[in-house]
Amino acid sequence: MGKRLVDDNGNLLIRRVGREWNPMGDLYHFLISSSWWIMISLISLSYLLLNAILAILFLLGGNCISGARPGNFQDVFFFSVQTMSTIGYGGMSPQTFYAHIIVTVASIAGLLSLAIATGLIFAKFSRPTARIVFSEKAVIRNYNGTPHLMFRLANIRTNYLIEIKIRVMFIYTETTAEGDQMRRFMDIPLVRSGTPIFSLTWMVFHEIDEKSPFFNNCNTPDTDLIVLLQGVDSEHSQTVYARHIYHCEDIQVNHRFIDVFVDDDNGERVLCYDNLHRTVPCGDERNCQT
Fold first, then answer.
1. Can you tell me the distance from the alpha carbon of 186 to that of 173, in angstroms, rounded to the nearest whole number?
2. 62 near 71, Cβ under 8 Å?
3. For 248-265, what is each residue's pLDDT tens digit?
4. What InterPro entries has UniProt attached to this entry (predicted)?
5. What is the number of other CB atoms lying within 10 angstroms of the CB of residue 113?
């Protein structure tokens, strides 16, 4: 039995060895792809480390800072912070040529570090994202007398996504005649793979015929179904992406989804996101007919 290559979020479950990879060699991508707390922590640590180095350089210059206690690391450290951030309280100032040189270096370092931090935060903050939620389960049921694989998705935001394209791939392990195992990707044809506008919910259908990998049921534990979505955010006119993965055990046979649209006591139509993931057994197969 093969092991899974991806988790529920679509992340690879593979440990890579034998590659020459250094985060410092691809620092920008490393910081952008890291979580917010990692990026902010690294920026803060770099800022403190740089100020500590400058403070040591000030200490090496002897009594070169007016208003600072001679040999006091705390005073020169916070003087470096004031210099890099251009605060300038006025209580301490350089009084030797050596100190002026270090202050010049600190000023340049402060400008560069501010520009880099601002660029990184803006790039990460402004990345276009789609708040799309997929149903936790997919179902197989009859639709107009023909078995179909179904799953649905919803737009959490109140904006519109336009020119939406969706692609579904079936991933399975194939054993060749020589006994070699190969991971294969099969595109799953959909009844409708695109929509000009998407604002609420969308039910995706795949007709199960003789060519479908689900024709003989999904009974292989190491098979996965990957869903890729691409569209344009109408608010920012930028392309956004979303992905989801369904494992074999996430596909429920002879089940149907509960309707996400309900009527409240005032007769108003309500979209209930809580129902997006809810399924019920069809029971009698005729209950699965639409």
1. 11
2. no
3. 888 888 899 988 888 887
4. Ig_E-set, IRK_C, K_chnl_dom, K_chnl_inward-rec_Kir, K_chnl_inward-rec_Kir_cyto
5. 17
CB 112 within 8 A of CB 64: no
Q: Which amino acid is at 280?
A: V
Residue 224 to residues 203, 208, 247, Cα–Cα distance (Å) = 19, 16, 5
User: Any residues with CB less than 8 A from the CB of 6 and at least 6 apart, and which?
Assistant: 12, 13, 224, 226, 245
CB-count burial class (<10 Å; 0-12, 13-18, 19+) for 193: middle
What residue type is 165 in one-letter code? Answer: K
Residues 149-198: tens digit of each pLDDT: 999 999 888 888 899 999 999 887 777 778 777 878 888 999 999 999 98
Q: Which domains does the chain have, with CATH numbers?
A: 23-125 (1.10.287.70), 132-288 (2.60.40.1400)
